[in-house]
Amino acid sequence: MRVDEAIGELVGDLGRFGAFTDRVEGLVDAQVKAFRPASNDWIVVPWASGFHLFSDSSEGQRRGREVVFAFLGPAVASLETVPEDRLQAELPASWRATGLTRASYIRRTGQGPAAAERLLSRLEDLVASVVGRESVALQFKPSSADLLRDFRLALLGRDDATARLLIDRVALDGRVSAENLRYLRIEYLAAFGRWAEMRAMPHIGALLQARRPRVISETLIRMIWWAELAGPEYQSAKAAFATRGVMDAFGPLLRSVRLPSTPEGRAVCLLAADADRNTEWLQEVLDSAVDAEERHRLEGLAAAPEVEDGETVAGPDEPPASEAVDPVALAFRDGRHDDVIAHFVEQSSAELAELALQAVLDSGASTSAPTVLVLVRELVDRGHLALSRHGRRDFAELQQLVDDACPGWVEWASRLASDTRWADGGAVARNSADSWAPVASLEAGKVDELCDALLEASGGVNADQLRASIDVLCRETADSLAAGSTNDFCQAVLVLLSAQENFSEMVRLAYLDLFAAWLDVGPTASEYGDILNLTSEIWVRIASPNAINWCVSVLEVLADSPCPDDAKRTASAATIINSARQHVGRLSFRERIEVEGLAADLGLPALDVEPPSEERDVWASLDGKLIGVYSLLPRAAASLESRLRRLCQPREVRGNSDTVATQALRSLAERADELVVDTWHAAHQATGAIDAVRPKDRQVLPRQRGVSGFLRALEEVLER
Asked: How many H-runs (helices) and E-runs (strands) does the chain carry?
């Protein structure tokens, strides 16, 4: 209810103020007109035995008390907090509906008409000053680095809607070139497996001809596998590779990368090596397989016949014998950059120098870069070579590549932590991290050095480059945790996330994911206490109704994860829950149910929650319905049902955790009125079976982990 509609019942008849009636009425009207709901605003109005300061939040009380005390002073009045039970019992229902249910009594110091006049005059001065001041809403505009960080964190969290919104904001910001914006769109499409859309992009052909980052080249090779070779219409990827002319369209790209870092990329390059009859390259691809299972698949792919529909596919065309073709120029044209570089290193001729520069830059062959740079510089210094304008540009770019080269995580972080500006630090991590030794494999001393450097860099001249690499660090942390490593690197990355100045929703979710993963692995009691303290400090900093979903997820993680220190967990949960309850007047029914339900799960007293009538109908649409839950989480369906039955009365909540396509899973997907598909904890075959009988737009897809994510996703569907 609006304040102007409820104020009359609260203040009652102003005639009791006698000669002051008009002045009090003006005082009230001025404040009611200027009051801004849901903004930590406050209002001073007469109620019961005198003037009271009302607000809808503890922050509003704090602000109001500071201003009132500053204007009145102890000689005029004092402030006393009104007990909550009195407010609940005596406030009119219409006023409680406004949410202004926190109050302080302004107790007049003196007695008699003179003291009343003095108090009213001071209140008039206060209202004239506060109401007469123009209210300016401060708009926080995130920097380009923040937008890019959040975009990539959205990709990491598979949040399609937010990623689309952020890439549009990056484009509107105007600080990213058209070329880099193209690369971001490719990153976006790859993150969500939209390979056909990527293949249909109008500038793919031009992109294949241009110099591009290695990560983009590898993404394009993955696109070849999924868009050209992995379709159900092909009996054999090898046959499709030949019949679709993949080498004609993408040969230079495949030869330039040679040994990709992804399974799909290695499969495509193996087929390219086989088509080129390049046994050395083929063997290198086989040897790069990450395990015996992948090697077996690659060997089977190489051994498959190049036949489809009974037609034998011809091998690669050979140039006519009568044509004189420069073998190095031919190798460069075909994308065999390693051959060009090797030929130049062997002969070191001025004629091949610029071609070698281009070959190193186009392939990203950082291991050969220093040698080529030295040889070209020697040719120039001896006067045997005069570089063209294009060659001078390539030479400078190669020099930059060599200067930026880092052999591993420790060297990269140490350089970020130095006092020297490194504008390409983020790009280096993005392009090179896959080739560095995993942090989980580093010895303890190196991990300590890495952590110290990262924390130092967060406050240095390269802080923006560290911020741009947060998603890479999060991915490496997740890999370390998956490998069972709980070294200090995990804690350092959590600290980096917590220290972000723009603590956006994407940063909060990234922190939450790593927080949950680390607790699942099992930190020591000391580490557990440190991280709970850090998490509680974050909540104190961001506590608001807008962040309550993050708060609920933190509580859920605490309730569901192994606990090495019960006392510490209980203390942290109590701190977080008591803070969340301060916003109860602005929380949804579902949010209040979750906070109190988790309080009970964590062994704390839970408060009763009365559903407001306007929100009860949202959840009532699930009454009598079959709710399906597909998740590999233990007790997922039971946990969801427990919370859901406090919101509505579904007929049944039925779970399924099959890892392959089964009749039971298909039946649930077909029959459920609402189907929650937990893609965070799922098997690919099973989700494919669901997609076959139920389109994505009829699935409830949580954007965050856990049962709280299920409920939030259901609520969003019901409110559409």
From this structure: 38, 10
